What we know:
The chain is an alpha/beta fold. The chain has a single domain (3-199), classed as Phosphoglycerate mutase-like (Rossmann fold, 3-Layer(aba) Sandwich), CATH 3.40.50.1240. The chain contains five helices and seven strands. Strands 3-2-4-1-5-6-7 form a seven-stranded mixed sheet. It is globular and about 45 Å long. This is Phosphoglycerate mutase. Pfam families: His_Phos_1.
Amino acid sequence: xxxxxxxxxHGETLFxxxxxxxxxxxxxxxxxxxxQALLAxxxxxxxxxxxxxxxxxxxxxxxxxxxxxxxxxxxTQLKGIKEMNFGSFEAxxxxxxxxxxxxxxxxxxxxxxxxxxxxVEVGQRVLKTIQETLSQDQxxxxxxxxxxxxxxxxxxxxxVTFPAGFHFSNCAICEFDISGNELRxxxxxxxxxxxxxxxx
Length: 200
């Protein structure tokens, strides 16, 4: 049996609805965010996927999502899969963020002068944390709940190519095949009434 990692983004939060930057800072799930998490749970139930281990970042929005999706109260927190730090832009309106450089699909190092993180470093810490966890936990089915930019940084590290304009919506699920400590993204599931699946 191929080991699987299901890495997903948290549900909608208060700051998401207010279009505020939400990286190192936190805000609670909205009712819609909770519904999104339960919709993701419905997908896993429909596919007869159960989890041997459940992890989440140390941020409330991720841990609460993990508990709803897994229907488990025992969720192990991992600091290394927390969201990117946006520095002085934290909790500020999103429109204040610097614009991507021409041809770029991420903030790259644009936030570093403002006390934030470089997306490359974010991807490196997320990958390192996942690999260290997988070396210690040999479970067949693992759920981890993280964040949009953290997941994007990881995929950049893994040289994953997405269609133009793609982004991780709330509760988007990345399904990875695990071989040793290596990860291969097989598909992305976007929870909705029809469960859109992007096969890679």
